[in-house]
Write a structure and sequence with these properties.
This protein has about 325 residues and is α/β, with parallel strands linked by helices. It has 2 domains: about 1-180, Rossmann fold, CATH 3.40.50; about 195-315, Rossmann fold (3-Layer(aba) Sandwich). It is about 30% helix and about 25% strand.
Length: about 325
């Protein structure tokens, strides 16, 4: 048996979800005593191949192709690789690109597709855990098939950073150019803010407990003192106090910073779905029963209007 994970890159950078897939794939491969392979399609494939040589990977397949993502090139390349490797499970990031080609790949390979996995297990058969109804409900799907394609939610598994001793092999895929019906001619940045909260190492996130827009300056001062990035829960964005690109949560962005400081955030499941992958979570809330404390590594039960200025002064 073999588990195959497909790395993702964008505009010259390997995305963090690629390393997270290594963790998910290695765990599943260990449960099934399977080999674990990683595929890199396009880009500077040799460079990416070496960078995906992580601890726990047995083989990295590099495939020459388009510099940027192309649906038809990915589907053709991975279909041919799957015919050779015959993986029992193919893991794809649950991202814009992954959800573009994963359904087509599953169809071409005649395999079931299960999307947005947050947990994988194999005990006599493959089971996939998904979240429904705004992450209020978990459901476990038993995959009654020997082969499957799965998309994996970013941020659910930690990234692996240790180098490995995998075999890095070039795979020669034959691309039928007549079936390549699109091409990337350039990029135009969407209108958004001046930061990408998904790249931040430290996030200071504010919620409904801040009460008034004018009070945001308290949290901004703390973020400045820490050299951190400011983010928010949905009510802050809905009120128009911060732009949508600052929103963390299921309807916002999934973030995995080193430190996440949640200020005045109750910890609704929709918000937690976007930040529970942070390495260290600090919660400040005057309600000792706030759900955010269930996942926090450190908690301060007190009024944020007393705590935040004190922390700002201390860090300054």
């Amino acid at each position: 048996m073999t588990v195959l994970a497909v790395a993702e890159h964008r505009r010259g950078e390997l995305r963090d979800v690629s390393k997270q897939l290594v963790t998910a794939g290695r765990e599943l491969a260990d449960e099934t005593e399977a080999a674990f392979h990683v595929a890199v399609v396009g880009g500077p494939d040799k460079e990416y191949g070496e960078r995906m040589n992580r601890e726990g990977v047995d083989v990295v397949h590099t495939i020459e192709g388009c510099a940027e993502f192309n649906h038809d090139v990915y589907v053709q390349s991975l279909e041919q690789l799957a015919d050779v490797v015959d993986p029992s499970v193919i893991l794809v990031p649950h991202s814009v690109n992954g959800m573009d080609y994963a359904p087509a790949l599953a169809s071409r390979l005649d395999r079931p597709l299960v999307t947005d996995a947050v947990e994988l297990a194999h005990d006599g058969g493959l089971t996939v855990t998904r979240e429904l109804y705004g992450s209020k409900v978990e459901t476990t799907i038993n995959v009654h098939a020997d082969r499957a394609v799965l998309t994996v939610r970013p941020g659910e598994w930690p990234a692996t950073d240790e180098s490995g001793d995998a075999t890095v092999e070039a795979f020669d895929a034959t691309i039928d150019e007549s079936r390549v019906r699109s091409t990337v001619t350039g990029f135009e940045e969407a209108a958004s803010g001046d930061v990408d909260i998904t790249d931040a190492d430290v996030l200071v996130s504010v919620g409904r407990g801040i009460e008034e827009e004018e009070n945001l300056d308290l949290v901004r001062d703390l973020a400045d003192a820490l050299g951190a990035t400011l983010s928010a829960s949905r009510p802050i964005v809905d009120n128009g106090w911060l732009p949508a690109d600052r929103q963390v949560g299921q309807s916002g962005k999934v973030v995995t910073p080193d430190v996440y400081i949640a200020i005045g955030i109750s910890g609704a499941v929709q918000h937690v779905a976007g930040m529970k992958g942070a390495d260290t979570i600090v919660a400040i809330n005057k309600d000792p029963n706030a759900p955010i404390f269930d996942i926090a590594d450190y908690g301060i039960v007190d009024d944020l209007f007393d705590v935040v200025p004190a922390l700002t002064e201390e860090f300054r």
